[in-house]
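Risk register update: the risk that structure generation would not scale has been downgraded. Supporting records follow, first protein first.
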Amino acid sequence: MASIPGAQFNITGASGSQGLLGPKSGYKVYVFPRGGYAAAASTGVIITFDSSSVRTRFSANKWVQVGTDTSKIRKVNSAAGSAIVVNTAVTVAENDRIFLIGSTQPSVVGGSATYTIPSTNIYYRDDDGGDKYTNSMVTSNADGLVQFFAPAAVYDCMIQDGNQSNVGYIVDLSVGAVEGISTDQAVILGGTVTINATLGVTGWATFGQSVTVTGAIGVTGTATFGSTVTMNANLGVTGSATFGATVTLTGTSGNISHTGTLAFGQTVTVSGSLVAGDLAEFGATVTVTGPLGVTGTITSSSDIYGRRLILNKGTALDSGDFTASAAWGSSAVVSLDPNSSYYDSRFIVGVYSDGTGITNGPMLTLTYKDGPYPNPMVPMWLTNGFGGTVSLAISGLSPSTSVTLMDFCPVSGATHWFSGVVIG
């Protein structure tokens, strides 16, 4: 049971020898579901509307009436596109109102109609647990007042005189807020907010407390949430999304996908993948059970736990990024292992020693492809294939890292391989 909105209006008309206006007592008002206007004149069985969205208000086996004329009551045989097909031909003028009068053929005697409208429910009082008007028909009181309550929607009203002859109508009567929340300005909601449909905001949406959304939130600007946010569907943000507390996403695969900056102030749980096109900032615990993909920077003020660290998003190295010292020989050649791609963070590089000047203590230096590390890094170089113990002297200051083989003399005509890992 729930409180529902209502509508009221007065019926007046001329009476007596003076033709003075006065309230009309005992007039009948039938409340129909919303109909539509005919978009073109016709004399056959097809009635055309301006669009399919209007036509969708009508369906097969429903009864319709053209204007107030009870001789123009027809049954809908089919409905498709922007038109309906009725059971027998009827003359329709452009801009005639086509009323949706129910699923049962009305009774018509001498031009007076009694409609049966089970698809419309209207009430005496402002709660859907109250008494209903039979056949959705309201009778005006001595003051000509018509009042009823109904679920939020748009309705049509057929007005009949005391003899139940159709004398007029009201179209597109709005009861309650039927179009949802729609704004291109600021929306500020200070307490609990429940939205069962779509919330579309092109500017700011600010929520101070709990927010529960069972549909989709689409924000092209900034969305700021100060407390708990629960999404049972998708969160789509093309601007910034800032969360100050716990964030749990259980929508489509539980994914977070963003082309800009992602900033999280506290606990974040993602059951799918986390993808950021720019900066990802995490202030506390972050749990991602799927892939973590960030093409920019990941910043975290706490520890990051994961199964493996796969570093493959940098600019690929080439042999020219390494410089061999003269101690490798005047004809030394640097090459990369051809079986993989390599980056500033990990690589396998070989030096072919050849030519004159080969001496003890050769040096190999890497100039970082993606620029200096922001802090002094911790490089680790490993040698292989030398057949003995080799002492290394490693320096790792920006913008390069280098290794000197302290007690090693290259072998002419041989390739000497190194593998390296750099953590900044």
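Supporting record for the second protein:
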Amino acid sequence: MELSKVHTDKAPAAVGPYSQAIAVGDFVFCSGQVAIDSTGKITADDVQGQTQQALQNLRAVLQAAGSDLDHVVKTTVFLADMETFQAMNQVYATFFGDTPPARATIAVKALPLGALVEIEAVAVRG
């Protein structure tokens, strides 16, 4: 099966040796997105604002791959502080419909650029 690199200028560029996403067959594997804008700066000071921006970035990458948030089958959410789980979850829920994807949420010691949340996803092309 052929792998294809996914890139869009509507989401932050990769800050290391990885792709925004890789598409293979009907699947799209998205790298983790944090709440940075095109300048590479964190856009919010709280987990709710950062969750919103991370998911907007993820949406842009998925659209570039021919998919969208409605076709996400699995996410992994990384939190710098599990105490912010409920605040993240409130925003997260607004991005997914009646059939939200499977999800794991993991507390980590630190995230790139001092982010409070990072979200990665696997989707199908629809």
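Residues 4 and 30 are 12 Å apart (CA to CA). On this basis the risk owner (M.S.) recommends closing the item.
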